[in-house]
Design brief:
With about 475 residues, the protein is of the alpha+beta class. The chain is about 40% helix and about 10% strand. The protein has a five-stranded mixed sheet, with helices on both faces. It has a two-stranded antiparallel sheet with strand order 1-4.
Amino acid sequence: MVKAGVLDPTLNVDTRLFIDPLLLAKSRHPEIAKGARRTYEQHFTNVIKFLSRTTGPNDVAWRSAQRLLSFPEIKWSCLGYGAESVSGSGSGAHMTGHFIETAKQIVSLGVEDPDLFVAMALFEEGVGPDRISDMTTNVILGDLLKFNNRVLAELGVAGKPMQISLRNGKTFEATLPANPHLSQGEPVILVPADALRDLPVVTDWSGVADAASKNEQLRSRVNDQIAALWEVRSRKDKDKLRRWALNGRDEFETFLEMIKGADPQPYDLSGDPLGEVFWRRLATTLADQAPMTIEKPPTLDYAGVVSVVEQIIKQFQFLIEDRRFSEELYHAGAPRPEKAAQRLFFAVAHAYCKANNLDLTPEADTGNGPVDFKVSQGYAGRVLVEIKLSRNGKLVSGYTKQLETYKTAEEALHGYYVVVDVGQMGKKDARLLQIKNEAAERGEQVSPIVFVDGTRRASASKL
């Protein structure tokens, strides 16, 4: 997959990467660089034509533009924020009302660049990375299917003829592999790796401002009154950005130049700085690399599940502290985000449950939530494991509030709070133990706390 320039998707959990339309033209794949980019430009050029002719909401031109700006979620690419599944929300008619009003305002300024729609994400409410990715995937789906037709043949992946029907009425026919985790044999649609980012550039004004501020030509075009824009670092200041960008044609076109000048780069799948995909490799190889026999309980009731989870936590601790798996918690010397540690634990749990033929399923909320273990027959014996990094500023409150909230919401009987020390611990560990001990003295039910030393180890040759 890597050599073919394709993301190898996780079929039952969304990968938090997104198709960035500003990367399409740079793709190494002709179906994307030429076909998809051309399709994208033509689609939004048509929207601009309709918006330039509309005289108000609900006339024919307005409804035509609205139809072209309705983008149902396409779950088959396994991208986005679906967390425990590959299904998201999509962007239907509820999103397009205010969006189309702003687009009409921009077109009325005389702006005809089809990228104006993606640029709006920097100041429009409800237009985040999922929306941008859904929008782009909808528009270029035909080109993506042509891309799949070629790369699936090159990879030797078998498929079957399918008809794909979207909620906006569009239909496509293609030969694709089926996703066993989706009902009715729904397809898997591969996406090009070089069109993916962890966040589309237009959701991060700080990156745009940093790049644009280094461009002398752009700086000379942005007068002193707008100089404060260089200091805008979050979407909290989007109203200021919006007022400036919508002030006139010159301002909006400068705004577009700033965005395009940010020079977005695709996500580094090989280095995987955010820990989006590394855990899958470990999940498939870990049991062979570091075999462990789990003492299987007589029954997987509450006590049985607890005993298995405790063994997995101990193995997780051993691998990090004694087998240098702590390296997986870092990229280029800096700690990966907390979700990378959560996914690493999920990989460990999955690998050993599978290797020991345990009827116990770890379900990863691969965002900022717990790893949840359950018995496959039902909810009896449900156990939660919350993974936190020592550098998390809410480490203490995560124990006193978040874990107990999760336990209540998930009807869990037991929860473990696993703290992985990657630095910046300070006195948080002492505070956690104090809170736990005081609660136990009051006779309250407390969740065990496990500290794991995740600091980087010197290799054996350097010891």
